[in-house]
Predict the 3D structure of the following.
Amino acid sequence: MTLMLGIESSCDETAAAVVDGDRCVRSSIVASQHDLHEVYAGVVPEVASRAHLECISPVIRQACRDAGVALQDIDAIAVGNAPGLIGSLLVGTSAAKALAWSLGVPLIGVHHVLAHLHAAALDAPPLPLPAVGLVASGGHTHVYRLDDDGTANALTWTIDDAIGEAFDKAGTMLRAGYPGGPAVEALAATGDGTGIDLPIGRPKAGGFSFSGLKTALLYALRGQPRRVDGTTVFPRELDDVPSEVRANHAAAFQSAAVAGLERGLRAALNDAGEFGALIAGGGVIANTAVRSMLERVASDAQVPLRLPTRAYCVDNAAMIAGAGLAQFERGHHADLHLQALARLTLGVSS
């Protein structure tokens, strides 16, 4: 049976995994950098790339040990080579090329965003195609149509902040912690957002918008700003907002963010043509309110819903290996000229 080694280093997680041809995860190792970036309330690219350099070899070795295999047992290597932070991507891509060359095995470049959708097939049945896939993460909010031939075409996307980015910024404003997604969700569970009116994004061209929601939350917490001697002055500081008020606004923010995600997704489904399943992936899909919303949307569309387990929602290498297997089975390989690419391509092949 095929053994695929997956390598992921697109942002602030150094990860490696071994997945077999049945999409059974033999091992999945993730070295998180959350502690390094928490002080900045966001990812610092240079800090991230240096941490990847330190972790990449130990993480790969641990993934092989946990899977009970040697590197010589690996049949192919998949690496997330786009999109992401260029310095971080270079670490994983260089390691993958070196291993593929030294082992004499095929190299496969994987689109990180689409790999989030392949996470739904890990330790689970194959993905039913054609399907519509939603990716909601810290860097991306996209809806794709996935076809039987392995192609993926973007139906819609965010015009500003990704939803995960908005959660991170909300987490900072609410003093909830970092990363913002789980921190805001935990705070929201203790609050009541009823009666707090925050806007639901409605961009003119469709798609998603979360920037206005983020700004509205800032004004709701600090009050309307005014200009004094050329300086923007708020009535209060974020640290002065009572804990109960922060919890209530966290609940209101989460409700509005999920409603905006649902609105954009439903609009995309209207343009998707016939499809047989709704698939979702990305860190934000770990959110309980988001998962409940997706169950409702899939039920209304009368199609099955495929979600990854929460462990495979965040960036990981098992999803890279799973997406790599899909390409490997179609005979799609890269060569040692494979490049790390920071930019996102909206219409791509999986």
Remarks:
- The chain has two domains: 3-123+310-349, 131-306.
- Residues 119 and 312 are 6 Å apart (CA to CA).
- The chain has ten helices and 13 strands.
